[in-house]
UniProtKB/TrEMBL annotation:
The protein's name: DUF5999 family protein
Species this chain originates from: Streptomyces coerulescens
InterPro entries in UniProt: DUF5999
Organism superkingdom: Bacteria
């Protein structure tokens, strides 16, 4: 799907992927390898598999003063 060198990895975890369509108002971006990444850190991979969001446990959240 992309033409840059080196070619895209199959997963969006690598920083060599590029955003080809950004929709911040909807909370997602399309990467050049066909993956869709969401603002909550979840992903939809080109093969249809899902990567769950990386959530921080509530007891580790800092409270605002």
């Amino acid at each position: 799907m992309c033409s840059h060198q080196p070619s895209c990895p199959s997963s969006s975890d690598d920083h060599s992927t590029h955003v080809v369509a950004a929709h911040p108002e909807q909370g997602w971006s399309l990467l050049c390898n066909g993956a869709i990444v969401f603002d909550d850190s979840g992903e939809l991979l080109p093969d249809g598999s899902v990567v769950a969001p990386h959530r921080v446990p509530a007891d580790r959240l800092a409270m605002a003063a």
